[in-house]
Amino acid sequence: MAVARREREPVSSQGNRLCGEKSPYLRQHADNPVNWFPWGKGAFDAAINEKKLVFLSIGYSTCHWCHVMAHESFEDDEVAALLNRDYISIKVDREERPDIDQVYMDVCVRLTGSGGWPLTAILTPEGLPVFAGTYFGKQSRFGRPGLVDLLPVLAERWQLEPDQFIEVGQEVAQRVGESGRDGDSVEVTPSLLEIAASQLVASYDKEHGGFGPAPKFPRPHDLSFLLGRWRRGGDVAMFEAVEGTLEAMRSGGIYDQVGGGFHRYSTDREWFVPHFEKMLYDQAGLAVAYLEGYQVTGRQLFADTVQETLDYVLRDLRAPQGAFFCAEDADSEGAEGSFYLWSEGELQSVLGAELASTAMKLYGANPGGNLEGEMAAAKKGGNLLHLPGGIGSEAEEQTEHRQRINSQLLAARSRRTRPHRDEKILTAWNGMMISALARAGAGLARPDYVDAAVEASRFLLDNLSDGQGRLLRRWADSEAAIGGFAEDYAFFAKGLLDLHQATLDISWLQHALRLADALHLRFTSDSGALFDTASDGETLLFRPRSIFDGAHLSATSAGLDLYARLFLLTADPVWEKRAQALLRAVSVEICRAPAHFSGLLQGGALLIEPTREVVVAGTRHSSETSRLLDVIQRSFLPETTLLLVEPEHGDDLCRLAPHVKDMLSREGGPVAYLCQGFSCQQPVSDPKMLYEMVRNAP
């Protein structure tokens, strides 16, 4: 039966409705022949008025497979004609709108068992989901339908059976929405932490590092969690899994051996061939993981990795205003990874024959290239630099060679066409980087890192905050917009808290407290869980909740850590109550798969296991005070918080943390109080004695 269809006007020669958007991802699609709408009431009104399905496409500007689908499908006139005739097409930048992404990713996972980007969903005009998937090419192949086959079938069925579509959409929405509702709780005990650690160790790839099969994603919170369990007396296998993974990632092609920083994930077990996006959140999380690895092992190469990664961020991802851009693309000059590949001739041209020979041996390069399949086509004879011998003692001894080679290659590479850089500034991701810079600055005695964290924090407070505890999500083209989500509040507050721990400037603690209060007041459910969206945010299919720790911590995990540490710093029982309620609210999900919630459990450990508070009383700029502070700031002490009571600022701190009011320096100089449960031992003035007191977990 033929169905009459109303033709939609062709796209203007000036582009579609995305031309005026600030998002780099949306602007990448502004010249498509597809008549895209941005997300909003106008798009859904058009769908209702024209009685058309909605074609929803979600991605981000540095996503390789998003580019592939765009080139194959959205730049194709035949696909565009089908979409323009039968659908209202909406583009969403998942980095700007993680709430929309989370809702329809939950739908995709429920319908298909998996998810990813690009994310594709077909909706009724009211936004009910009836179909979902990820990448779709133009033509059907390998058992996956192509858009030229899929789109007409769904459109015709919608015209013939709209009630059935609506019924399916309502059922899907109900089932997915129910999974995020408040429910029962169970007690989270230390034994659950051990179960999670055992599950992670059982999945450890002893041959190549990391956890589970390919593809392998860096999951720095897993490494931090295992180090924390090992510190609590856990099996040495936990430490070995962490050290082995740090070594494997650092030696693999997932690490940019020339310029520093990590690519998004590895396509293979060996960490050799990555997808080449460089995400700000990965740099932040992995810098912290390598810092903790250095603090535990003392291995200089781990410290070098922290600094090379953060130096890359400061060099290539830092905005003129002092905050940080989102990411760099995988592709340049039409090919994924070509920016990072080197032929033998290029190495010889830059380094000279002798040093090029050393570089090829060090970095596993071959005269004919060391890549296979599709990657080999990115550059004829191209080599992806890695350390095939690993980073054992021999590689560490070659630091001088490596630095000489890298400085010359980096200078030569800077003259290549760089990958696209997404120049959005996101509050949450900047919060993560502020944490990393603050912790690395204190842990490695790099005041320039702390200064960078301060500058980024001031930018966010001045431009993405209203001064009353409300945040905006993103800054782009001198415009701040989009109400902040739970992760923006949690990660920025957590960054400010880490900045306080690095500087011991009470103003950063005060800012963190204000944001943490706003997080609780605007995002908390009746049971104490955190929603992704604010109570006055846009109404979506359902109100999403993110608790799974994926590529980075969830907002829930960051919020739990924030609340627990604020309690340990201030002794205010309100924060303990909020932290305990949040942990209870997600306890059932944790118990189902503990290893998937390592970040949550790390925060939970601060509530269910012994912790310590160190209070140093002394003058900030005194060398004796600095030596006491260094003991805490340069060590791996995840269960320990730090306060500095200064004679000139003691009253301000006592208002926030009344329990320190009697902790004063002695006539002989500064002292440190070691407390547990806010009950303190006699103060000590000798840094060596303080170290002996804190070196083992309580």
Question: What's the layout of helices and strands?
Answer:
Blueprint: H1 24-28, E1 36-38, H2 41-50, E2 53-59, H3 64-74, H4 77-86, E3 87-93, H5 98-112, E4 119-123, E5 129-133, H6 147-160, H7 162-178, H8 190-202, H9 220-231, H10 236-251, E6 265-266, E7 274-275, E8 278-279, H11 280-297, H12 300-317, E9 327-328, E10 331-332, E11 335-336, E12 341-342, H13 344-351, H14 353-362, E13 383-384, H15 393-397, H16 399-413, E14 421-422, E15 425-426, H17 427-443, H18 447-463, E16 472-476, E17 479-483, H19 486-503, H20 506-523, H21 555-570, H22 573-585, H23 587-592, H24 598-608, E18 612-617, H25 623-633, E19 640-645, H26 650-656, E20 671-676, E21 679-680, H27 687-694
Parallel strand pairs: 1-3, 2-3, 18-19
Antiparallel strand pairs: 2-4, 4-5, 6-7, 8-9, 9-14, 10-11, 12-13, 15-16, 16-17, 18-20, 20-21
Helix pairs in contact: 4-6, 6-7, 8-9, 8-24, 9-10, 9-11, 9-24, 11-12, 11-17, 13-14, 17-18, 17-19, 18-19, 19-20, 19-21, 21-22, 21-24, 25-27
Task: Provide a brief overview of the structure.
With 698 residues, the protein is α+β, with helices and mostly antiparallel strands. Helices cover 49% and strands 11% of the residues.
